[in-house]
Fold this sequence. Notes:
The structure holds 2 protein chains of 2 kinds. Chain A has 2 domains: about 5-80, Beta-grasp domain (Ubiquitin-like (UB roll)); about 90-155, Orthogonal Bundle (DNA polymerase, domain 1), CATH 1.10.150.120. Chain A is about 35% helix and about 15% strand. Chain A contains 5 helices and 5 strands. Chain A has a 5-stranded mixed sheet with strand order 2-1-5-3-4, sandwiched between helices. The longest helix of chain A is centred in the C-terminal third of the chain and has 18 residues, at about 145-160. Chain A is globular and about 50 Å long. In chain B, about 25% of the residues lie in helices and about 25% in strands. Chain B has 20 helices and 30 strands. Chain B is α+β, with helices and mostly antiparallel strands. Chain B has 3 domains: about 40-135 and about 200-275, Aldehyde Oxidoreductase, domain 3 (Alpha-Beta Complex), CATH 3.90.1170; about 290-465 and about 635-790, Aldehyde Oxidoreductase, domain 4 (2-Layer Sandwich); about 480-625, Aldehyde oxidase/xanthine dehydrogenase, molybdopterin binding domain (Aldehyde Oxidoreductase, domain 4). The termini of chain B are far apart. One FE2/S2 (inorganic) cluster binds near residues 48 and 60 of chain A.
Amino acid sequence: MSKNSVHITVNGTAYKREIEPRLTLVDFLRDELDLTGTHVGCEHGVCGACSVIMDGRPVRSCLIYAVMADGHDFVTVEGLGSKDGSLSPIQDAFWENHAMQCGYCTPGMLIACHHLLEENPDPTEEEIREAIGGNLCRCTGYQQIVEAVKIAAQKIHGVNL
Amino acid sequence: MSAPQQFKYITKKRRVREDRRFVTGKGRFAADFKFPGMLHIAMVASPFACAKINSIDSSPALELPGVHYVLTGVELAANINPLLSGLDLPDVKRLPLANGRARYAGEWVAAVVADTRHIAEDAAELVAIDYEMLDFVIDPEEALQDTAPVVHPENGSNIFFDKTWTWGDVEGDFAKAEHTLALQAKWSRSSTVPIETFAVTASWDEGREMLDIWASIQMPKYPEQIARALQIPVTSVNVHFDVDVGGSYGLKRGIRQTVIVAYLTKKLQRPVRFIEDRLENMAGGEMHGPDRVFDMEVAYDEQGIMESLKITATDDCGCYPGRAPLQLGKPVSAIVGPYRIKSARYHARSVSTNKTSQEAVRGFGQAPTNFAIETVVDRIASTLNISREEVRRRNLIRSEEFPWRIPSGSEYDSGDYHAVLDKLMRAADWDKLIEKRNSFRNDGKLAGLGLSTCLEPSGGNSSFEPLFNPKNDTTTWMESCLIKVDMLGGICAMMGTSSSGQGHETLLAVSIAEVLERDPDSIRAIHSESVGALPSNSPVGSRMAIMLGGAAAGAAKKIKNQVIAIAAHNFQLPEDRLVYEGGDVYVKGDTERCLRWEQLVDIAHRQYHNMPIGSEPGLQAQHTWEVPTGGAMPKEDGTVQMYPCYAFEAHIPLITIDPGTGQVQIHDYYIGHDCGTVINPDIVRGMTFGGIAHGIGAALYEKFQYDESGQLQAGTFMDYLLPSAHEIPAVEMIKHHTPSPLTEFGQKGSGESGYLGAPAAIASAVNDALAPLGKSIATLPMRVRDLEELLNS
Ligand code: FES
Ligand code: FES
């Protein structure tokens, strides 16, 4: 099969790869770049496990071909924390509040919540549920996730004050 | 009653240590493992509900560049032993790939192996199979008829299991009763549907003669089952239990998938991986759940006191028996729920149809049974015009009556059901909720308040196995822990199982910390590889807090005793003159005379001359624990002590139903919960909320629907609806703690909590909402379309 060339930036690092046009972005991230934090749940755009941030907006990387990602900028779960290994406020709040069990949906959830807090630093319960409404979690019943977003929002305020 | 135990670490909030790797994207799931030369599988699935496979022509597939092999059911069957069945059905052979006959639409017929998954999928479409369609049966009632097509002709009929137990004077109690009523309740086919599908990689190392396996597995006796199927020693199977499992809730048994990749890696001498895609998982993964019709009869008096219960449960097991029929067995453990019912009859039938098979689903059959029992209780209340809570209060076992033996033989360890119910109703403000419901009604809405009071049998043992299969005399369902203290004083604890979100590393660390009085964060907990692991039965049956926690505490006590013995020898004093504190040992009344943890450990590891005569050098201990109250076969009369511990939960949801569309909205949700001593409050909360969400799914949304031609109509997340954060409400949890007398810290299980009572509570609420219309429904799920139809009927 013919190969296409893709240049993308993920978590601040530029990559160049020759790939088959039918490779999805999630497979590209996982198999070509070894960024296995982004997960696959359904491959048809419903579960949100594969969510990543593309040019500042969350997208489902199972619905995007890697060739379409050419020239774009991505953040995955691996890029949410600081380079020194410290956790971002939302990561830390997820940990503090046990906003997960198996951890499989967690990267996608974090992406959704991270984006929410960037857009809306003080979301209401409804806004949080709206923001994670497209991310399925089978373990938690969502409650500790919603609570974690509130905790993170408070922490961010605390830092900003 | 003794004073409640005081704990240093247990019951306290503590971050769950596993979570750190998950929030950084550093979890290690089965699909994250890659090996040089690894090959990939795609399955060829039967498009027919039942078909004879006349021939398979693999050559067009093999011609595609990158394709290495096409494995057929015929080849596999000739080279492996059939997979373990829970029942004694020698003529029903369960094989990983269909052999000669495909018995459901989606059943895997061949496995294509290629350099990439893409190529394997392309090639799968090129495998030419000559099928001959055969008659099939989808409806379990029809499957019971003499004229029905038989799924396994060798078995002679579609009945996998059919047995009736009578415990106590059921006929007498019914004859004497002031009232009886009968009803039918249905629980449709759904499952736990983890977000991660099943994934497995196997690699055969000819040099070590070792089959290494990385799988998203939650299966008791997994290495043994692989070894049996492949006819190799268990010592040649090494399961890497440190793989993080992306959700399971009982389901991920994956033995078929594993045997396929294991056979192929041996055959091709390359690592082989299979990751189910969503459709492979839903249609062919054989991971559906109970699909049950309950015919219920109850005898009760004018006060609503239940005397006797008759249950006929007919379960549509699907195609192969696996462990599914045993899911009719666990409910024997709590066959009368939390109620003081004197006698019971249980008729359990497992019927085969041309559908994919079942696996274990959270609660192992108890949630459907709880739903059926609660439907009966609500019906008594409405028939006698007594409130639902009052009927329950009159029937619930009272706190002073524990331990309480139910007719089927299990003894419930402890509980205070009335206290939990009262606390819940106060916290939820039941009267206010009624007002709120009524004001919804005044606004023209259909509104309902639900109630359920249910049990979670926990501590899982396997007593249903001998009960359902007389040839199976398993009476232990042990769990183990090995603790090793290294030369520098570090503590490492090992378990012989993988985890799928239960936080076992945290559980081990905290249980050991509590006994040894060491900082939990200083204790490493790991998942051993199976070849070096002590016996485990994996995290099934809400058992790990009890069993792994108990095994860890047992091993920790042995370490503590060794440390005290070393100190006693060095002080030349009897042990009762010494005090153990935080790992150090000092002389009573003289804290200056102290040997510190590091010194004691150093003696154990290096100074044999300072060790008690004849003692083992080093500092390590293992403990393998039998399930408390376990160890006995069922008695002649069919009574059996099943699970040791019984957690209790009571649910109150307030819902509305849109009268036009049938759409249900949940406005408030309260749960009263008692699982004894809580080891980690965040973990118990999470499991309970998750269980409620799963229960709401089973009650309102989720169904593996088959059409008349035997095709699965719900193979994606577009048509099998998992509830999102929109459908699941905020839940308020009201806690109560009645310790179990049988466990180390008083803990009971909570891995299935929420799910065991939520479906019943939602059904109760829906029926309360329908009551003013004179309508009712006792079939789950109560989907929008089902309610719309009912409202318009
Ligand atoms: S894997 Fe992309 S949405 Fe499910
Ligand atoms: S934490 Fe398991 S699916 Fe969300």
